[in-house]
Amino acid sequence: MSRIREVWAPNLEQEMQNIRELIDKYNYVAMDTEFPGVVARPIGSFKTSSDYHYQTMRCNVDLLKIIQVGLTLADEEGNYPQDVSTWQFNFHFSVNDDMYAPESIDLLQKSGIDLQQHEDMGIHPNDFAELMITSGLVLLEDTKWISFHSGYDFGYFVKLLTAESLPTTEDLFFERLRKWFPTIYDIKFMMRACKVLKGGLQDVADDLGVMRIGPSHQAGSDSLLTASTFFKMREIYFNDQIDDAEYSGKLYGLGQTFTVSNGIASDTVRGSAATIAEREDRSGAAQRVDNNNGTPMGMGTPSMAGALAAGSYGPMAGNGPYMRTPIGVGGRF
User: In which compartments does the protein localize (predicted)?
Assistant: First the structure.
């Protein structure tokens, strides 16, 4: 039997019931998401790179739809439930009707994601959110979430659970995040205490001798690898004890202090397109751009090849406009 269970609209309620029966004992939840890329960036002046990263994430999460969520359950010792330990939730998505970045969709299709099946059998986000709220997965301090470089992941989760656009400020976002997810560990953030660990999730897993089950760039397999990597890292580098005051609730890529104006960092730093940066960070093959055209380290944003026409601008609530990237956008908008 496969340890990864595929979840579509027809078996959503049954599989959420299965999770509900397991969550008290297996209260560590490792997660990963797959989403259709990055199609916009904010413009204007930003006090810090953290604010810039957040606004970039916010405008893209608000514009786009999630494609997959992977959840893996484990207990305090890192043991998994027998048989199925991981659930891969597949959401409704249409390449004809929904917005996406073509290179991200190409990557997902090459990784084995069947987008026609997503259109035919995909889960409606409201159905998922309704069941998740009563599942024991959220709102409880004893439920501990594990992630890797997860700003966008939790952005999509907050959007799913609230059925609202993300808050206009980073502070309000973290208030909402702490309400739904009181305990979060981001492995990428925790790596600051592990000087020998570098790179993306696959790099770290390889260094720790953790084996992948299932295909990369699919949320179920990535969430299982995230769980196994966390427990091995906790054992080796943290003596099986995590200081929550130091590491809980911190997301890598948010909280830095570069000054950013019109999407360009004042410091000479490196970065890449947000969806590629996070996804490739997990696989260990992060793309880099020329230092002179880079963006603040962290989530990253697309480097812009040139200005777009005024008609390319769109509203962005109280925080000013955003600009669609010139690299090509698919779907309707």
Answer: Cytoplasm; Nucleus
Rounded to whole angstroms, the Cα distance separating 262 from 42 reads 8
Residue 90: exposed, middle, or buried by beta-carbon count in 10 A (0-12, 13-18, 19+)? buried
pTM greater than 0.85 (yes/no): no
> Could you tell me if 55 and 63 are in contact, meaning their C-beta atoms sit under 8 angstroms apart?
no
- Rounded to 5 degrees, φ, ψ at 41 are -140, 150
> Which helix (H) or strand (E) segment is 128 a member of?
helix 125-133
Which pLDDT tens digit goes with each residue over 292-307?
A: 233 333 343 333 332 2
Q: Please, which residues bridge with residue 88 across strands?
A: 6, 70
Give the span between the Cα atoms of 186 and 272, in whole angstroms: 20
Pairing of strands 260-261, 264-265: antiparallel
β-pair type (4-7, 86-90): parallel
